[in-house]
Amino acid sequence: MRDVGRGVWWLLIVVLLVHGVYAGLEVVTGADLWWQLATGRYMVQHHGIPTRDLFSYTFAGAPWFNEEWLTQVLFYGLYALGGGTLLALFKIALVMGLITGAALIGWRRSGSLVFAAGAAMAAAFVCRPYLDIRPQLFEFVGTLVVIGVIDAYRRGARPAVLAVLPVTMAVWVNLHASYIFGLGVVGLLTGCEIAKAWLHVPDTPMPMRRALGLGVALLATILACFVHPQPLKALAFPFVILDPVQSPWRTEIVEWLPTKLFSEEQFNPAFFGYFFTAQILVALAAVLVAPRRCDLSDTALVAVTVALALAARRFVPLFALVSVPFAARNLALLWDRLVTTSTAAPVRVRVGSTVVALLALGALGNVLLRSVPDAQAITARGLFPEMIRADFFPHDAVEFLRLNPMPGNLFHLYVWGGYLEWELPERKVFIDGRAQTVYPGTFWTEHSQAEYGYPGWNDVLDRHEVALVLWPTGFAGGRHAVMRDELRRSPHWVCIYDDGHSGVFAHVERGREWIERFEAFSLAYPDVAKAQLFLVTAAFRASAFDRARLGLQAALRRYPETAAVAQQAEERLGNEARNTGAPGSLFGLAFYRDVAGDAPAAAEAYRLALEHGLVDPQATYAREAIARLNQNGEARDPK
């Protein structure tokens, strides 16, 4: 598989790039992206890195260590320059670079583009669920750069190439806390190379003098880690994350859960199990057929990333990328030792090229077919909104809060905090995705008690004097539905906004001003159909029937999609009226007929409702409606 035609090489490269695009198109809810953009905006506008909390009212002014400040400035700069589309394209290009870079290292290490590209394409499927727009992307970039530089040095590159290591670390330490892993990679590979040279291990790629050159580069790389506004905190921070006492949120966040092999779950692709098993089998086979060619450095690095990937799902893509060169080399070893090369070279090239070309075309067809739903969704919703699942966030409810800038502490989902900071910076949040960098672990636990509707949730809101709750109302089930139902049942909370996706609840005391304005119909509502229908429903329930009728008629004129909702309501009430003769059902039926302009049928239904014992305030309105319809000459006089 080393001997294929140049045309097949180009085909493999094209297929590899397409797999990179496919991996980059995965939809991952961009919960952390929003607070990073908000922070980047603040730094650009104020020309400084914040060290105290700016965004919450619960920990306003608390110490804040921002370890990812450079990524936030980069993300905001891209967004300011080209909007979400440019940010999405940046991510896709970066992912293409990751997949291609891993394959390139594997190609140089194994001498086989076929095996390197094949391993990288498989890795693309493993990595895809994890590749959202966030600083963790630079963990993968930095790791591949470090491995690539040391690989080049091992193959005989000049010592000057090692200067890339401290430069990379100086940038990486300001991009993401995973720089500590990159430093560990440099230390691990350096130690292995020195040990190999000292012990005269077979197939050693460098003499002791060059191995010690790596040691010098390691020292320079360690010093480069101090190129940070708060170097000591940057050094300690990755270990704080691993402390279960200080970071209890790790047990609740899916990507920190242990990986399950062969199981399809969130951040846990079933394909990873097969990819992992194949890596182990290929590595064992390579050791059996060529034990003296087994490389200590490569094996140690892959073993470390395997342990990380099995311990927490967030490290699965790290293992997948690091293992690409490892797999390519092992496959090349097996091919050289087990597959005969007695066939004449020209025949071998033709046959190999044909087989590889067919496999590449099959892989290309498979990934293009898998990309069809992505392309359709992007066409319908846009690249950036689709990529970050923009419909998960409470866009219209946030607009409602913006239109009504009255005071009141707000409670909300943990994953909505960053979105509020970006879209509604004038209103402070309860919590956001900065987790342990601002909020203590005990506060995370306290917030979770309320977020999941556990007993005592109302006590949490009372302690923090919460006046408003922004909550998802359109989810049929799940843990968040518990809190939604608790709010709806509680006599202490009133729903003052609901668009079918998310709602706003006001406390009867702390949110009194909001409720009074809601009851007086003086709140402003966003210009969207479901919000206007909620206002109509609120008016109807408050017995402001004329307001409800006129509001629904206006909604029907402005939002054609509401016609189906009104028709379904009319049909449901009609069935109830025929089956039960209930005056309330007859009144509702009359109301919808009145809205629709069917005056004779509306007057008849109002009349029947009165005959069946309709009581005030509906009875008074029914008589007034009949008089109005008669005055307009649209219905005959009642008996």
Task: Describe the model.
This protein has 26 helices and four strands. The chain is mainly α. The protein folds into two domains: 237 residues, no CATH class; 241 residues, no CATH class. It has a four-stranded mixed β-sheet with strand order 1-2-4-3. Strand 3 and strand 4 form a beta hairpin. The longest helix is centred in the first third of the chain and has 42 residues. The radius of gyration is 32 Å and the shape is elongated. The chain starts with 5 loop residues before the first helix and ends in an 8-residue tail after the last helix.
Task: For the structure shown, list the relevant keywords.
four-stranded mixed beta sheet; mainly alpha
Uncertain ranges = 634-639
Spatial extent as radius of gyration: 32 Å
Numbering strands along the chain, what is their spatial order in the largest sheet?
Answer: 1-2-4-3
Quote the distance from N terminus to C terminus.
95 Å
**Count of alpha and pi helical runs:** 26
Helix content: 55-70%
- Amount of beta strand: under 5%
Helix-strand pattern: HHHHHHHHHHHHHHHEHHHEHEEHHHHHHH
Averaged pLDDT: 90
Biggest β-sheet description: 4 strands, mixed
Task: Work out the number of β strands.
Answer: 4
Structural class: mainly alpha
The coarse overall form would be elongated
Count of distinct structural domains = 2
